[in-house]
Amino acid sequence: MTLQRIGIVGAGAWGTALANAIANAGRSVVLYARDPAVAEEMRASRTNAARLPGVALHPEVAPTHALNDAAETDAILLVMPTQSLREAAITLAPAIRRALPVVACAKGIERKTGKFVTEIISETIPLASPAILSGPSFAADVGRGLPTAVTIAAADETLAAQLAEALSSPAFRLYHSTDVRGVEIGGAAKNVLAIAAGIVIGRGLGASAQAALVTRGFAELARLGRAYDVKPETLMGLSGLGDLVLTCSSPQSRNYAFGFAIGRGQHASGHQAPLAEGSFTAPVLADIAAQKNVEMPIVTAVQAILAGRLNVDAAISELLSRPIKSEM
After folding, report:
1. What are the residues facing 6 on neighbouring strands?
2. Is 233 exposed, middle or buried (0-12, 13-18, 19+ CB in 10 A)?
């Protein structure tokens, strides 16, 4: 398979950063912006000043408003929030040829259906070969060419390896996997846990509490992974533990920043909520945990706070008053 020309649908900060990283790998990139004015501005200025300021577009990145241009490539990356993925995929589907790799670059679970991102792609673009790209990464770092490593997963091992090889550059390293569900679970759960970590720091509970939260949060993530029979090494890897550590420790994470604001007393449904994927994932993740009889008290507490059923102090009190047991 030749993967020389890559299409990216979604010209936000992450889409623009990925476009630069992939162009640095020696590929030509077609970057689709839904707003024609955005595409024209990027073509004229060779920047995406509104979403990724201070970062020049690589010469091999071609902004466009024509969706067919992005579809006439060797692989397509869908770079938008999980809750917008279905709409974008449905729009793109008529232009997709058989077995074209379509890579989800979102971390979450669809709230209305409980579907993971590759399930959405399979359902809406049946001709596509679905994959997912996930891992510890901030758009600003990737866009500036700072060293970053992530995971790309597809059910077909050959496809996963080919995508990793084609999209990797010295500063943007992809590891490949066939454990699609494991990668999806890590990306989805860590966003909810990052909200919890932000709440802990925003409430002034200290670094020790933050470390305990991240550690016990990972235990919850691992329990959910076992319920889906995913590979333990996936959860211990970049898309699991790696992404969890990053997003639970940096205000660059929208989910952490959202939780921090809640910890400081701002309302859980404030203006930052639509930017935090974890605010949409929390209720469906809590439902999945209940259906599979998986104990996820931190996720449940975050969902209760977001739904207004518990305030922060009551949720913390409930977590701290849980029965003493062995560490598992």
Report:
1. 29, 75
2. exposed
Helices (H), 72-206: 82-92, 117-124, 139-143, 157-167, 180-202
Q: Is the pTM above the cut of 0.90?
A: yes
What amino acid is encoded at 231 in this protein?
Answer: K
Within 13 Å, how many C-alpha atoms sit on residue 93's CB side? 15
Q: What residues are annotated to the active site?
A: 190
**Running DSSP on this structure, what letter comes out for residue 323?**
P
Per-residue model confidence as pLDDT tens digits over 47-101: 999 999 999 999 999 999 999 999 999 999 999 999 999 999 999 999 999 999 9
Rounded-to-integer distance, Cα 100 and Cα 130, Å:
8
Rounded to an integer, what distance in angstroms lies between the CA atom of residue 128 and that of residue 241?
29
Q: Do 39 and 33 contact (CB within 8 A), yes or no?
A: yes
Closest among 276, 287, 300, 323 to 112, alpha carbons compared: 287
Nearest residue to 146 (alpha-carbon basis) of 173, 165, 128: 173
